[in-house]
Design goal:
There is one protein chain. The chain has 200 residues and is mostly helical. It has one domain: Rhomboid-like fold (Up-down Bundle). Helix 7 packs antiparallel against helix 8. The radius of gyration is 17 Å and the shape is globular.
């Protein structure tokens, strides 16, 4: 993988570590908090995804981020990944705001990670990688399980708090839409043909 592809996950990692390092001060100002957002603190729609419950929650999400990036980081250009990440974070928060009025606060990157996962899968399928149908089936199965039964056993205990499964669902849906609409890069090991060009 081109080293330039690592800029985004590295930036997210640094931001999340710094924010958690500031402790309660950052939590007070940055987490998704419904009353504060409705009172005009709209930055929380994005910054809430960078805040975490604790170090175990952060490490779990960062492990997922880097694994997904190694698998799918070259599926889109860096510019499109920036757009996708921002739009997914905003879409998740707006979805929670409109469809889950009982949810008072929320933190964590996992909703966006589900967006990265679904976006990467769809991009690979568009490139002809039939093996990704299995990954899609696993993701859909997980989402259906969560909607029917709540979070995957053990995840809440490891994260240190309740898992908001609707964030996973919203993120996966938005990511899939981006996977369908965004100009995908050529998948690894497949040379461009005809008028195809590799994107940076």
């Amino acid at each position: 993988m081109d080293r330039s592809r690592l800029i985004l996950p590295l930036t997210l990692t640094i931001l999340c570590v710094l924010i958690l390092g500031f402790g309660d001060t950052a939590t007070h100002w940055l987490r998704y908090e419904r009353p504060a957002i409705l009172d005009g603190e709209v930055w929380r729609l994005l910054t809430g995804h960078l805040e975490h419950l604790g170090w175990s929650h952060l490490l779990m999400n960062l492990a997922g981020l880097w694994l997904l990036w190694l698998l799918y980081g070259d599926s889109l250009s860096n510019l499109w990944w920036c757009v996708m990440l921002g739009a997914t974070g905003l879409g998740i928060s707006l979805g929670l705001l409109m469809l889950d009025p009982k949810l008072i606060w929320y933190v964590g990157l996992s909703g966006i990670l589900h967006g990265v996962f679904s976006c990467g899968i769809i991009c690979r399928l568009r490139a002809g990688a039939r093996g990704e149908w299995l990954m899609l089936a696993l993701l859909v199965t997980k989402l259906v399980w969560e909607q029917a039964n709540g979070s995957v056993p053990g995840s809440a205990e490891f994260a240190g708090g309740p898992v908001i499964v609707d964030a996973h669902l919203f993120g996966a849906i938005i990511g899939a839409v981006f996977g369908l609409l965004a100009p995908a890069s050529v998948s690894p090991g497949r040379k461009p043909t005809g008028n195809e060009q590799e994107s940076s």
